[in-house]
Amino acid sequence: MRPLLGEEEAAAVAEVVRSGWVAQGPRVAEFEKAFAASVGAAHGVAVSSCTTGLHLCLHLLGVGPGDEVVVPSFSFIATANAVRYCDATPVFADVLRGSGNLDPASVAAVLTPRTKAVMAVHQGGQPCDVDGVRAVCGDVPVIEDAACAAGSQLRGRPVGTGALLAAWSFHPRKLLTTGEGGMVTTDDAEWAARLRRLREHGMSVSAADRHASGKVVLESYAETAFNYRMTDLQAAMGLVQLGRLPGMVARRRELVARYRELLAPLDVRPVADPPFGTSNHQSFWVELPDGAPAVADVLAALAAAGVSGRRGIMAAHREPAYAGHPHAPLPVTEHLTARTLILPVHHELTEADQRRVVDALADALLLTPATGAP
Q1: Same domain, 310 and 180
Q2: Of 109, 108, 110, 114, whose CA–CA distance to 65 is shortest?
């Protein structure tokens, strides 16, 4: 991955520097409104990362000790970590092989009276069938981990439209980046107001609003909260990036279409759009056949050929931090983690680059599985 940044972003950040107001302020407010509108949400609350956004969502819902939150193991570990921040227990559910997203049947199998929430991840930008997940959850709230999904579509609408709560990432590996940073979107005005207080130490009036009032304003602190703010420097970059997003998504989809053509002769399965949505292809992963060399050997062969690949999505339940945590049977998660890898995809990738990647992958697949040798 390589972020698409240019002179417009540099100029926007420089303007904020010259203004003298570099902390959370007017640019953050502008970015919140623009991003929320782009995903069909009524309110946006900018935060320091998607992880802190997920934590705030869980805190808002009152998740705490003794509670369980159902999450996919097939996700970056931050999804489960946010649950632990609340002293609650992540319970791992399995995913669907085609998309890597939550399998509603697996979710249903682990729901208990202690389940306080379910977190549905739009993995790698692949739109999750959130409606299917909600259908098995009943009154249990569903939080959308949309870290990778800015620009993805679900049933003809942007991912995040109609979400109870959705958290987004603007890390440099995402299409839209602010360096670090994130956003929570919701249609609930009261929740949005409380989220804004929670991200800023619980202040009844934000620092920006106090200064803008021109009067003496004494804030109060009604609850223990956090410092999860975004800066105006980041928001200025985000506003420029948001304008680039449709073009970036179109370019990603063009690159992935070409990858599919080039990969057709190989015995691999590229991730594909589900019938109910389209991906922004934040990540493009392929599943290797069972008879192929180990992913680690294939990645080493790619690296030797000058191609930077990456292992597929991790299985959090296999990490030492989550040893022994409760989970449903996870055969699909374990299969995908063992047999998938991510290929390079970024705006500047050329057709020649893609041919080089696919040729290197073809050569790597000829390795002897047992030894990794030709």
Answers
A1: no
A2: 114
The backbone torsions φ and ψ at residue 79, rounded to the nearest 5 degrees and listed phi first, read -60, -50
At 245-254, the pLDDT tens digits run 999 999 999 9
Statement to judge: residues 180 and 72 lie in one domain: yes
Give the span between the Cα atoms of 229 and 208, in whole angstroms.
Answer: 12
Whether this model's pTM surpasses 0.85: yes
The residues annotated as belonging to the active site are 174
The CATH number linked to 215 is: 3.40.640.10
| Closest among 357, 345, 125 to 256, alpha carbons compared | 345
Q: Do 142 and 79 fall into the same domain?
A: yes
pLDDT tens by residue, 334-373: 999 999 999 999 999 999 999 999 999 999 999 765 444 4
Average pLDDT of the residues in 261-285: 96
| Ramachandran area for residue 202 (φ above 0: left; ψ -120 to 50: alpha; else beta) | left
Q: Which domain holds residue 256?
A: 245-364
65 in the same domain as 31: yes
How many domains are contained in the chain?
Answer: 2
Of the listed ranges 24-33, 41-50, 115-124, 323-332, the least confidently predicted one is 323-332
CA 346 – CA 4 distance, rounded (Å): 8
pLDDT tens-digit profile of 181-204?
A: 999 999 999 999 999 999 999 999
